[in-house]
């Protein structure tokens, strides 16, 4: 007798379940995806014991008829694709026809469904074995309920990996937030052990402020920069948090490709690159972004749980995302007073966050208006409706809108000739510059600001190959370790590129002959030591451009004004004007804010004025 034999169907399903159904949240994911594919506009998820005892997902979607129910739980049976060509252009969330049979093979499973054309619903029950009981008529509204009880009751190995009720619930919570962010028109309710833990009404506008506030918090909204870029058949839209909102974890990163939440290396790299220069070391950016592209341009059949995708033109997608975000972050946020920034006639309705005036009180780091910035994804303007939407269920948000903070003072006339950062009044504690702006007080950290300006200039000069070197009148000899001298020699070309003319004098001595003219006042010895130390840390491991930028950042820091340098009013104003012209001037090279605004309103509040 042959030792090879076909596996029984239930075992095949259980093996398939091994790939897709890891924990209760994976069941919820598959069921919610099915509901969305069925065009549901309202969804209810009931859980008991973190989903281990019970998961019930009820939708008001298109439903299934009695002849379809047995097929729904049959392996490799799907209504979503019929051919390879369909798979190539698939726009539904599901397509593998594996989820329901997999789930049914590792739980006590019931599906009840009713189509609009039927007088009542039908119920099908499976108990983990191959067969299912005969269909039963059942009372049910139009739509579908799937009930999954005792998950993994017949797979002890999997059961062992389940965590506490709280942990499993946490995973499901996170998952539902991810769906809710992408499907603004979806009403979503979650109960756990009989108590409602989430009740989100459908939003009337995509990415409506109230919904975002509940899902992501006020703080994210206050720091959100709108993005909307279209190029080469790709569209990227959504929100990126300004770098000063960066988090210690990557827990607020939502990226959807054609409405599907994915983790993708190409995307992650492009985003990281875009934030590279403005993020405090070790911090993680926050964003909610939607990439839309023709389904044929992206392969979603990469991972059984469909967490990953593959782009046909991954280089193009990478560069598109990188450029869009890089530019957006370079623009930063305008500092024009919140109310004054609102376009006429937009009052009353929902609008984008102008001027970063958070609902919470207290000054926040401001944002700079840039001479180079043109209106993009404009303030007070909804994104153009677009996106192809999945199954017409409004899964892809077409735009978004924000609530204007209430109680905002009426727009103040802004004299046209007052620059956004105002005019310097004086210096405080040798560290800060105070300036009078049309709407209150601007406070600038002069070292941080100067550092950023220096850095941006150096970058431009070095990358644009227009760096001017200045020979030192008296070359400076610097005694270093042999390793440092070797390092300088190995990287002579790089140092040259950075504008540092350095020669080796002996085993342990270097001589600095030239500095970048931009750093005229810098101490050559200290600068060289800093650059060598940076070079030792960054080495050649990073990409050359990133490595150069890191070195330039160090040089800029070195060249920036130190605390306690008295600046003349003319120097202070020059710095303010430079900031207005410089990209990424909202943050210093380490990602800290360079300036903040205390509005008239906040000042008035401090003195209880107008109460
Ligand atoms: N909530 C639902 N509403 C309507 N039809 C559903 C629902 N859930 C599943 N189905 C039907 O059952 C089929 C099988 O579902 P599933 O096993 O998840 O595979 P897939 O989603 O990959 O097609 C689907 O193709 C769909 O026709
Ligand atoms: Mg499915």
List the SSEs and their pairings:
Blueprint: H1 9-20, H2 24-37, E1 42-48, E2 54-59, H3 69-72, H4 84-88, H5 99-105, E3 108-114, E4 121-126, E5 136-138, E6 143-149, H6 156-159, H7 165-182, E7 187-192, E8 195-200, H8 209-216, H9 218-222, E9 224-231, E10 234-241, E11 253-257, E12 260-261, H10 265-275, E13 287-292, E14 298-299, E15 310-311, H11 314-331, H12 338-341, E16 423-428, E17 432-437, E18 440-445, H13 446-463, E19 469-479, H14 482-490, H15 492-497, E20 501-506, E21 509-516, H16 524-538, H17 544-559, H18 569-581, E22 595-599, H19 600-606
Parallel strand pairs: 1-7, 11-13
Antiparallel strand pairs: 1-2, 2-6, 3-4, 3-6, 4-5, 7-8, 9-10, 10-13, 11-12, 14-15, 16-17, 17-18, 18-22, 19-21, 20-21
Bound molecules: adenosine-5'-diphosphate (ADP) and magnesium ion.
Strand order of the largest sheet: 5-4-3-6-2-1-7-8
Small-molecule components bound? adenosine-5'-diphosphate, magnesium ion
Largest sheet: 8 strands, mixed
Instruction: Please state roughly what percent of the residues sit in beta strands, choosing from under 5%, 5-15%, 15-25%, 25-35%, 35-45% or over 45%.
Output: 15-25%
Per DSSP E runs of 2 or more residues, the count of β-strands stands at 22
Rg value? 29 Å
Mean pLDDT: 81
Report low-confidence residues grouped into runs of 5 or more: 334-415
Helix percent band: 25-40%
- SS summary, helix count: 19
**Quaternary form:** single chain
The general outline is: elongated
* SS-derived structural category: alpha+beta
End-to-end CA span: 93 Å
């Amino acid at each position: 007798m042959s030792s090879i034999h076909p596996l029984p169907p239930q075992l095949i399903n259980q093996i398939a379940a091994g790939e897709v159904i890891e924990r209760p949240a994976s069941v919820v994911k598959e069921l919610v995806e099915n509901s969305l594919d069925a065009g549901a506009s309202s969804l209810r998820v009931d859980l008991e014991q973190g989903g281990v005892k019970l998961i019930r997902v009820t939708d008001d979607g298109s439903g299934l008829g009695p002849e379809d129910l047995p097929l729904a739980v049959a392996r490799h049976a799907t209504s979503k694709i019929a051919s390879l060509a369909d798979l190539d252009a698939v726009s539904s969330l599901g397509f593998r026809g594996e989820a329901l049979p997999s789930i049914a093979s590792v739980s006590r499973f019931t599906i009840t469904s009713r189509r609009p054309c039927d007088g009542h619903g039908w119920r099908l029950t499976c108990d983990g074995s191959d067969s299912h009981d005969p269909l039963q008529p059942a009372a049910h509204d139009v739509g579908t309920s799937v009930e999954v009880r005792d998950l993994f009751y017949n797979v002890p190995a999997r059961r062992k990996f389940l965590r506490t009720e709280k942990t499993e619930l946490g995973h499901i919570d996170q998952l539902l937030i991810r769906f809710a962010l992408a499907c603004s028109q979806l009403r979503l309710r979650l109960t756990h052990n009989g108590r409602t833990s989430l009740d989100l009404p459908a939003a009337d506008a995509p990415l409506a402020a109230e919904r975002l506030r509940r899902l992501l918090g006020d703080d994210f909204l206050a720091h959100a920069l709108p993005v909307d870029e279209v190029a080469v058949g790709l569209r990227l839209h959504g929100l990126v948090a300004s770098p000063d909102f960066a988090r210690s974890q990557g827990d607020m990163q939502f990226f959807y490709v054609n409405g599907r939440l994915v983790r993708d290396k190409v995307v992650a790299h492009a985003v990281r690159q875009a934030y590279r220069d403005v993020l405090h070391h070790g911090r993680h950016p926050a964003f909610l972004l939607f990439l839309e592209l023709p389904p044929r341009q992206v392969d979603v059949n990469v991972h059984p749980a469909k967490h990953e995708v593959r782009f046909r033109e991954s280089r193009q997608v990478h560069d598109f995302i990188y450029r869009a975000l890089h530019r957006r972050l370079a623009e930063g946020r305008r500092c024009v007073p919140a109310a004054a920034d609102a376009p006429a006639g937009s009052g009353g309705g929902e609008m984008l966050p102008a001027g970063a005036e958070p609902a919470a009180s207290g000054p926040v780091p401001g944002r700079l208006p840039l001479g180079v910035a043109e209106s993009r994804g404009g303030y007070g303007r909804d994104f153009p409706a677009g996106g192809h939407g999945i199954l017409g269920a409004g899964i892809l948000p077409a735009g978004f809108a924000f609530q204007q903070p209430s109680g905002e003072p009426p727009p103040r006339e802004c004299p046209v000739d007052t620059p956004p950062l105002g005019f310097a009044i004086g210096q405080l504690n040798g560290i800060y510059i105070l300036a009078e702006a049309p709407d209150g007080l601007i406070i600038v950290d002069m070292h941080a600001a100067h550092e950023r300006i220096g850095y941006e200039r150096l970058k431009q000069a070095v990358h644009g190959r227009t760096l001017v070197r200045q020979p030192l009148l008296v070359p400076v000899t610097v005694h270093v370790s042999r390793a440092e001298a070797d390092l300088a020699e190995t990287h002579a070309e790089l140092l040259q590129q950075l504008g540092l003319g350095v020669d080796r004098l002996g085993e342990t001595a270097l001589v600095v002959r030239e500095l970048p003219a931009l750093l005229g006042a810098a101490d050559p010895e200290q600068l060289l030591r800093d650059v060598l130390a940076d070079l030792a840390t960054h080495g050649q491991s990073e990409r050359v451009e990133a490595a150069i930028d890191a070195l330039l950042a160090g040089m800029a820091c070195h060249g920036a004004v130190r605390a306690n340098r008295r600046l003349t009013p003319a120097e202070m104003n020059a710095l303010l004007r430079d900031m207005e012209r410089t990209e990424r001037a909202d943050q210093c090279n380490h990602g800290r804010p360079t300036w903040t605004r205390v509005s008239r309103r906040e000042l008035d509040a401090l003195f209880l004025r107008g109460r």
